[in-house]
Structures are given as C-alpha cells and as structure tokens.
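Run FAD-binding oxidoreductase through structure prediction, thanks.
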Amino acid sequence: MKQHYDVVIVGGAVIGSAVAYYLTANPDFTGSVLVVEKDPTYLKASTSLSSSSIRTQFSNPINVKISQYGSEIIRNFGKMMEVDGDKPDLNFHSGGYLFLANTPEQVQILRDNHAAQVSCGADVVLWNRDELASAFPHIRVDDIALASYGRSGEGWFNNTGLMYGFRNKARSQGAEYVTDQVVGINREGSRVTSVTLASGAVIEAGTVVNASGPRAARTARMAGLDIPVEPRKRTLFVFDCAKTPEGSATLNDGRLPLMIDPSGVFCRPEGKFFLTGCPPIDDPAVDWDDFDPRYDEFEEIIWPALAERSESFEAIKVVNQWAGHYAFNTLDHNMVVGAHPEVGNFIFANGFSGHGLQQGPATGRGVSELIIYGGFRTLDLSEVGFERIVAGRPFLERAVI
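Sure, done. The structure for FAD-binding oxidoreductase is below.
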C-alpha cells in the first residue's frame, strides 16, 4: 500500500468494486485506485444479503435505463470479467417481474409506469384479468384489475458473483484492495485530502468515493458532510411448498416470475423453493450491526397474503431466513450519485434503497466518468445527483419494493 492514491474508494462491495473496475478498465485513466473494505468476507454486506434481482419496471425513465444497462452487463458478464481463463457465471434466471394491482390507484400507477418503461424500449406488457389467469393459472385473479409483466431483461442472478466478478477484474487491472476501515477523512477547505485508517495509516487521496452502503452517512460525516441515508432492515424467507406451482406457467418454459402482490408481499422461485419478503409495517432505522430477522412478518403478513393469492401457497413451510439492510435514502428512495457541490473531490454513490445490485454497473460507469472526465459521458445521471439533496427536492420513484 502506497501513501498516495488518485482515488480512494470507501467500501468494496458491488458499488465500490464496480467503480474500481470501470476506472481501471478505461484507457483514459492512468491513476491509482485503492479500495478500503473492512470485511473481505462480505457476510453482512447488503450485496450478499439481497434478493439479487433486476427489473426494468420503474416509474422514472432514468431508473429504467440504469437497469437496462445492468441487464446488458449481466448478459455479457462472463466475457467482460474473465481473469486467467475464468469466466464468472451469474446463473441468470430470466423469470421476469409481475406486478399485480387491485385498486384504481394501483392501476393508474401501473399504467403511468408502463408508459415510462415502453418509452425507453423496455419489454413490458399490461394484462387484464383473463390474460393474467391464462399465463399463470395458479394465481387467484378475482380481485385483480391489471397486471404488468416483464417479458425480458428481468430476473434474478448470483449476487456475490456480480460483486466478486467486478472485484477480481478490478484487481487484475491494477486496483488495490486493503482490509481496513476508514475512521477519518481529512479535509482542507473545499477538498478532502486524505483518509485515516483504523490501522493508523494516513493515505493521501486525490478523490474519495463514498461507497459504504448503509453506513454512508457515517462516512460522509467524517468529511463534515451529510446525506440522508440510514440502514433499514429487510427480512427474507425461503419456504417450501407442499405442491409447487413452478412449471405451471403457460409461457417462458413454465417458469414463474417474481410476483409482487397488491399487498406488497413478493415471492419468486429459488431453486426448488421460493424466496419471499415484504415491506415492514413499522420501518425504523436500525443499528448497523442489527441483523436479527423479523420472524413475525412471515406469519402475520406474508403467509396470509400468499395463501389468499394461490392455493399452492396455502401449505408452505419456512426452511431459512435472514435479514439484510437497505441503504435507505429517506428523501426519495433513490440513488445519490455525484460529487458534493462544495467539496468537488468527494463523490457519493449511496442511497440505493434496495436497488444497489442492479444499479451497480451503471453507477460504477457513471462515477468513473465523473472522475476521469468531470462529467457523465454515457448515461446522464444528473437527475440523481447530490444537488437535489441540498435543495431538499425529491426525485420520486413510485415502483419501490
């Protein structure tokens, strides 16, 4: 480890490693990169504990385009991230997303969202009740007024595979990783100058990237800055069915999608089992080290909703559960990507509110462009920049799960 790096990235999970990859892959960048990660096992990283899915069904065109790029990267990931003949396989399952609506308000949201999605070329269709029943016969549809289904570009994949693919390729391209923790960020006026590590080392930095997930606010405060991001707990459950409905669909080779019930409960196939979760009724900020699952959510919220939606889900049994953290942006539930307007060499890549895995590729590319060129060259992410945080101007996303 050297005493000076052109870029120091705080956090080495999927966002930090994507930034490191895109920087070192660009021939216009000739600088040095250090990624500081306190836990190289990533056992409690949001990346590792996520439901690892990707969708284009968002309400904002920028979020649709971000996921379209993410889907492109996932399709070509093995070739792009090959190191010494090893091509990582993300085991992508193209199951699609299925949103169900049963109130006039939900129907209008699906229609508005669909207009934004198709304007970007997303392969999403709206179905009436009969079309839904024909596609997925196991679903009870009597109360459903409209459904939205992603026919391609959506599904789920290997979450840690994406992270390690970026990490390994970045390292092969010259990025350095150190197991340590940033405990201080030193600043002189309008510029950060160095970071202090728990080991006692002081590393001079040309640019600092905040990629510290749910701990983003703590990292920002070290530089005397604020960002409205806090850890929010999400519990995921894996369950077995007495009689699985997987294989019963009349399209997509019988594969079932990730279904979002009007109640907010979602589920999708997970091998021979199913993965499910729900937005909690009470959703406070939690301690950064609180990973205790909320066991009652399954019995009180999830199972009743699933049993009502399908006979197949009346007899189910939990076989595993865990809790992870959303890096929750309390202003508008959207990513914050960009430099601080008063501290230009401190760059935020935070607040993904559960979408960081699928938005990682576009974020890594965008941050690298800011550092190398001083602005976005491909997909313009200005709308999700830090300026809206300063102004208290939400950039709302209505399709948040």
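DSSP finds eleven helices and 18 strands in the chain.
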